[in-house]
Amino acid sequence: FTNISEEDLNYRDQIQDIPLLLSDLPSTKTYSETGTGIGYSYLNIRGFDQRRISVLINGVPQNDPED
Length: 67
Fold this sequence. Notes:
Layout: H1 6-11, H2 18-21, E1 28-32, E2 41-45, E3 48-49, E4 56-57, E5 60-61
Antiparallel strand pairs: 1-2, 2-3, 4-5
């Protein structure tokens, strides 16, 4: 797994959605339906879609497939 530091998050603070925050990680593909980074965004890591990837902030899940 990969840890992202607070400094990295602050550097990218203009990004609205978590999938787009993770777009610079290796083997990661992200896209947004609107093309603006706001709204429905999707994440694939090494071929696994967002329903099979766990994103945690301080141990709290951030990616609910229904959200």
